[in-house]
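Q: Could you predict the 3D structure of Aminopeptidase N?
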Amino acid sequence: MTTRPMHRPALSAALATALAAGLAVGGGATATAGASAAPVDGASGIGDPYWPLDGNGGIDVTSYEIRNRYAFASKGLSGRTRVELTATSDLRSFSLDFLLDVSKVTVDGARADFTKSDGDHELRITPAAPLAAGTDHAVAVTYADYPADHSYAGEFNWLANRREVVTMNEPHMAPWWFPANDHPLDKAKVDVRIRVPNGREVISNGELKGRRVGKHSTQWHWRADEPMVPYLAFFAAGDFAIEKGKHRGVPWLVAVSEDLAERDQAASMRLMKKTPAVVAGLEKDLGDYPFSVVGGLTTGLAPGFALENQTRPTYPAVGGSDTSLVVHELAHQWFGDDIAVEQWSDIWLNEGFATFMEWRWAEKHGGRSADAVLRSYYANVDASSAFWKVAVDDPGAAKVFDGAVYGRGAMALQALRNRVGDEAFWRVVRTWIREQRGGNGSTAEFEEVAARVSGQDLGSFFGTWLRTLAKPAATATNGLG
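A: Sure. Here are the predicted structure tokens for Aminopeptidase N:
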């Protein structure tokens, strides 16, 4: 995510623990695969301390098939989502994260009982028979509601007017439009079909697979080839100008809202069409782009931020020259999308890297060097500033998108580059991408990779930059000599 003033490889340790344990409701013991114990109620959270109700215990989702209809005038959404999942413990019941009003749930075609929690975020499902650990199941949820009426964790995330809607937000968005295991630890494939009145367009992740035109409405079908974190799934519906092509073998598709003024439309399309060239530039440092398609969308709404939706980031209208914003969101395709965080406390691995790649882009395209940006930050932020009072590797839920997570995170990376040398630094980055590809990454894992690849003891370095609530000393050890 970028806020601007308007100008599966091997399971991670955390996921393996969560899936194996089942995480019983109330923190009690649960059955693991092969254990002879009574089925349990899967936990209402996957175990992330920032948002304890995010994700759910005892299940591992494989895919979402989302079939929704959207009404612009009423802002009503209705539909049915099929969730394919594996039970990771013997389950009497389990939860999905969802905010909308549900009328029916089936498990493997049979009606299932269901309830919603007091907070209206947990959809608790009790199948006709318990689910055995290791077995696969299809869960279908039918619903209809007004997403704008709902909130979670203090967030009112439905972004729409009577002409356009776009589902973009972080760390939560999925529960406003489809039931999900809503945590970065559980990636799944996403297939999206959205029906809207004839003459309107729908844009989503991945590739457009087709349209079914009826008498009054059209169903748009999008599918992404690679699994994704639930908040990175999106759709936008409205009136859009669309352009597409192929660059170095990668298909691209960009869209711009026709609800913008004509001049803003033209500027936004110029910016969106930089997408394939930016990807090609990033590949020179980071290696092959991790997905099969790429693109971008500029909304006519005013979200106040851009978001790195997988394969197709969404942007506010910021003019045609803000290339750094596109760089940031496309860098997230490696850092945040392909390699997702293990817990939300690891968010600097997303935002610090994306911000650093903005600095790197400027360095390679006639701007200041990344080292010059680091030293400017350092010189101009006083030691008493709150900027130095945030633990970058664990900022807390209230400061998960604090400026220090972005700025000090990027500073830490350039300081690391200074400390270990340019060649070793890029070997660290490439090794991190290769070893974590398609999975999740933690701060501890990144620190281990950096030390192993560079051959240096970096414990005090990372402690100073990520955990010490004070301005680092300007020493060579800290990458500032």
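Q: Anything worth pointing out?
A: The mean pLDDT is 93.
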